[in-house]
Amino acid sequence: MTVTLITGANKGLGYETARRLVAQGHTVYVGARSTERGEAAAGRLGARFVRLDVTDDDSVRSALNVIEEAEGRLDVLVNNAGTTGGPPGAEGITGAGALRVFDTNAIGVVRTTQAALPLLRKSDNPVVVNVSSGLGSFWAVTNPGLMESRDAYVVYAASKAAVSMLTVQYAKALPGFKVNAVEPGYTATDLSGGPGNGGRPVEENAEVIVRMATLGPDGPTGTFQQNSGELPW
């Protein structure tokens, strides 16, 4: 039985990823800040809940301790929790606000991955999936033909570019692991404004997360993937 932890999994892409992986036979731990919402989501999914706030060291350590006691290892970590930090443009950006976005989107990946490493090392096929964005691709945001080049999501894009570099560096630092970033695409979730935002449904955009979370031992590492294939950095 594959043991999987997904952060920010009580709704949106994290929830849909959890649903798909439970259906494939994974033992899925739904990580969420809210105990009430997390337990409710896990109950609907047939998953297990751990309270996990990626901006809090003690919360992350406690969540991994729960998994260690119950399972003894972790096979798949999906770093999905994220925040946008506000609308596009430069108005309203503050240092404190930027720190909050980076703390969730980038440092949260570091906190959770580092805490999970001892359990991942006990797996025969450790996999880490970092949910990023096309806005974190220098190629995409400088390509006039792509939506990512149109608006300036100053702090959010910079935080996702940091996730891209973390992915590459962790892939180099962790031989034997599969560490990849994914771009699910613009999705109809609360994070991006809900079903009326013009985004694709979570069922479609979670596909790339599920694909990279179920890699075999010969799968790629250190790549940036989207539904249609590899995405340039």
Could you name the key traits of this structure?
8 strands; alpha/beta; 8-stranded mixed sheet; 15% strand; Rossmann fold; 233 residues
Characterization of the model:
With 233 residues, this protein is an alpha/beta fold. Helices cover 42% and strands 15% of the residues. It contains eight helices and eight strands, in the order E-H-E-H-E-H-E-H-E-H-H-E-H-H-E-E. It has an eight-stranded mixed beta sheet with strand order 3-2-1-4-5-6-7-8, sandwiched between helices. Helix 3 (57-71) runs parallel beside helix 4 and helix 4 packs parallel to helix 6. It starts with a strand and ends with a strand. Mean pLDDT is 93; it is low at 192-196.
Mean model confidence by pLDDT:
93
Sheet of most strands: 8 strands, mixed
Beta fraction of the residues?
5-15%
Radius of gyration: 16 Å
Order of helices and strands: EHEHEHEHEHHEHHEE
Low-confidence stretches: 192-196
Largest sheet, order of strands side by side?
Answer: 3-2-1-4-5-6-7-8
> Structural class of the helix and strand makeup?
alpha/beta
Give the proportion of residues in helices. 40-55%
CATH domain class? Alpha Beta
Give the tally of structural domains: 1
CATH superfamily grouping: NAD(P)-binding Rossmann-like Domain
What is the name of the CATH architecture? Answer: 3-Layer(aba) Sandwich
Number of helices: 8
Query: So what's the overall shape?
Result: globular
CATH fold-type name: Rossmann fold
